[in-house]
Every structure is written in C-alpha cells, then in structure tokens.
Amino acid sequence: MKINLAGDRDRLTLREFSAGDTADGSLVARGSIGLNAAAPSAELTATLQHFHVAARDEAVVTATGDVAVSGTIASPKVTAHLTAEQGDITLPDRLPPSVARLKIVEINGRSAKGPAPAPQKPKRRHFRRRSTLNWRCPAGSSCAGGASTANGVERRQPGPRTEVG
Q1: How far is Cα 137 from Cα 156, in angstroms, rounded to an integer?
Q2: How far is CA 101 from CA 60, 93, 95, in A?
Q3: Is the pLDDT of residue 148 over 60?
Q4: How far apart, in whole angstroms, are the C-alpha atoms of residue 146 and residue 144?
C-alpha cells in the first residue's frame, strides 16, 4: 500500500493512494477533503482493476471500474460504474447459533391457505380513430367536386369514424 496525503489549513489532499490485493488486483485513488467547519466536503475518485472487493471464506468477488464521491460529507453523492468480473459465494449448510432465527408469516403469498381470489375480467378498451383527408389542387387544375380557381383549392374532408371495442 502506498499513500501520499498533504494537508493545507482546511483541506486534505490525497495525492496518491494505491493498494494491491493478494492476486494481481489494484486500487488507485485521488482527491481531496475540505474541512470547512460549516460544510465539510469531498471530491474523491477511485479506480479498481481486477480488485478483490470481498475476500472471505464465504465470498470472493473481483471487480473492475470507477467510484466517485463528491459533495458534502453529510450528504455525499456516490457514483460507481463497477463490473463484477468473478464471484464465488459459498452458502453454509448451517447458520451459527449466534444468528437469530426469524419466524416468517406469509400473507397473500403462493402458499397462503384459503380460497383463491376470483379472476378479474379483463377491462375492455375502446379505441376511437377519426381520419381527415387534406388535399390541395394546384392553380389551373380541376379538382374533385368541380372546384377550380386561378389560385388553387385546399380542402379538408373528414373521414369515417371507426370504433373498436
């Protein structure tokens, strides 16, 4: 692990942070933390390359991507674009005695007893469509209906109304 941190009055600057895991994964971070008494803030970025984000007996997960933290410490904005490249999770056969057992009561679930709810009729939908035909006859031509003028004719003719339902 390597860290280079500098302080200047009300600001800590993380010039360099780098760490590796037991495999060939790496984590590199940079940024700063403002220590303003009114609203401390952070601007930090980190890049992971094949890094073990979980390394326990129960789970080993390797990820690659970027993480950014910005804004006030009280309400930070965390943005992460991570890809879990590999993950091995082992579920134990038994939980240790220190883990509390919970009694689950399922309501309206698949295994709920009692009469099944009556199927609902599908709602009928009505669709209305009305078409309108717009056409223009250029000047000096004869249009349907016998209209003809020197300036041309524009007509709007409502079409049939169609209802489906």
Answers
A1: 12
A2: 26, 15, 9
A3: no
A4: 5
Q: Give residue for tokens 């943005």.
A: 79
Contacts of 26 (CB under 8 A, 6+ apart): 18, 19, 20, 48, 49, 50, 51
- Token pair in block for residue 35: 């220590």
Where residue 130 falls among pLDDT bands split at 50, 70, 90?
very low
Q: SS3 of 72, please?
A: strand
Place of tokens 């302080």: 7
Residue-wise pLDDT for 54-103, tens only, equals: 888 888 889 999 999 999 988 899 999 989 888 888 877 777 888 888 78
Q: How many residues does the chain have?
A: 165
Rounded distance between C-alpha atoms, residue 90 and residue 152, angstroms: 81
Under 8 Å between Cβ of 143 and 153: yes
Distances (CA, A) of 70 to 13, 32, 89: 14, 10, 32
Question: How far apart (Å, rounded) are the C-alpha atoms in residues 43 and 67?
Answer: 11
- 97-109 as b/e: b if 16+ CB within 10 A: eeeeeeeeeeeee
